[in-house]
Every structure is written in C-alpha cells, then in structure tokens.
Design a protein that fits this description.
36% of the residues lie in helices and 23% in strands.
Length: 112
C-alpha cells in the first residue's frame, strides 16, 4: 500500500524510521540543540542519511512543567524548519502539534 504525503509517496507495506527533530529551546530530549534553521536542517540531513523516511518537527516542549507557547511562537519555530526540510530533502515532514493553525500553515509549506 502506498500513501502520498504531500507529494512524497511511500510504500507503507513495511516499517519506516521517523526522526524526531525538536526545535525548542527547552526540549527534554536534546536540550534545545536544534533551534536554528541551519542546525535543524543539518540534523535532518543526518537523520535521512541514517535511514529516516519521516522527520517529525516539534515546536513546543511537552516535558512535564514546560511552559506553553503561543501559536505565533510555535509557528516561528517550526515553519522555517519545515520549509527548509521540504525544499532540500527527499523525506516526509510531519509536525508534532496540537494547534489547528500550526497544522494548516505547515501543510502549505510541504508537511505531509
């Protein structure tokens, strides 16, 4: 079975690797190491080279006690990264968000 993710078609009859890319200054898993577009894109390139078929971009920390961010701030964090990854890499881009506004905007930039 094949699925089209915003123009990138993957055969879903097997397993795929998803790389997690947190672009938050307070990420619980990476300490905010990927919070610029250039650094985030370089990390995404590494994950694709390591076999990732998906890159999941997160713009709001979900660690216990994390301060919620506004929709505007989340958009500022994820949109440039999603756009760069979708433009430069042959990989499905997804976004870890609970905001319908963020979902709508990142789809326009190539998230699938």
């Amino acid at each position: 079975m094949q699925i089209n993710f915003a123009g990138r078609v993957l055969d879903m009859s097997g397993c795929h690797v998803m790389g997690i890319l947190n672009v938050t200054p307070d990420s619980f898993s990476d300490g905010g190491r990927y919070n610029t577009v250039e650094i985030a894109l370089a990390r995404a390139r590494e994950m694709v080279a390591d076999g990732a078929a998906f890159i999941d971009v997160g713009g709001e920390s979900t660690r216990p006690g994390a301060t919620p961010v506004s929709v505007e701030e989340e958009l500022e964090r994820v949109c440039p990264v999603v756009e760069a990854i979708a433009r430069d890499l042959d990989v499905v881009v997804s976004v870890d968000t609970s905001s319908p506004q963020v979902m709508a905007e990142v789809v326009k930039l190539g998230a699938g």
